Amino acid sequence: MVVDPAARHIDGESVRIARDVLSAGPGGVKMCLPRSREEIGRVVGRRGRRRPVLVGDDTALLCAVEQLHREGTGARAVALGVVPVGPPGTTPLAEGMGLPLDAVTAARAVLAGADRVVDLLVDETGAVLLGGVRIPATPADGPRRPPVPAAPASVLGPLGRCAARVWPGRRGGAPPLPRLRVEADGVVLADPGSPVAEVSVRTGPGGAGGGLAEVVVRPADAPRVAGAVPPVRARARAVTVSGPEFRTRTWTVSPSALRLTLPRS
């Protein structure tokens, strides 16, 4: 049981409840208390034969996921359990995956849930996204606020952190309509000649994407109303986004790269 230091500080009672529930499972539980979020990955990497369970918010979850991904194929042999704990608005990624947000139910799901294989998105720097990314991020996705799922059925990674990496000039508020070049497996879906309202790249739920990401490019002059110009859609293994004011990023699908324990329902 790897406990995010922020979770201990903000909601120690939920951490205690999760520990008590997990302790009732077979084999008991060993609690690990990293001193910082940077240490979460190292603690997960030193788990030995123990099954890792992350107690914390979405940012802490991504720290654990990145460590498991760095381990390569060995990560597929172990399932990561998650007990979401954090202030309101910091666990939408976990919620979008269907994880309960109360400690008792979430810990019980770790003990009695089902292991599911999921795809990941990995950029050229090795940074990992679980679910997807949206550009430009909405105000709720900005660097100073937590991420939100685009829809109940979708799961997006920590968009604020991603936006800060690829849009270095942004300091809050709504970003300008970007002029982007979007390529899906080498096929150009958009070019800088016309601004876009939104670009989203996401993996299929539960690894159902077959190793391909869904790419959606919504033109700036295509409002979301009936009869409007439809967005451009594609499925690809690698997606590159670049532009005059955008730090180039290439996201590649890493298929079946992670196992998560999720509620059976």
Automatic annotation (TrEMBL):
One of its GO terms (molecular function) is kinase activity. Keywords: Kinase, Transferase. This is Diacylglycerol kinase.
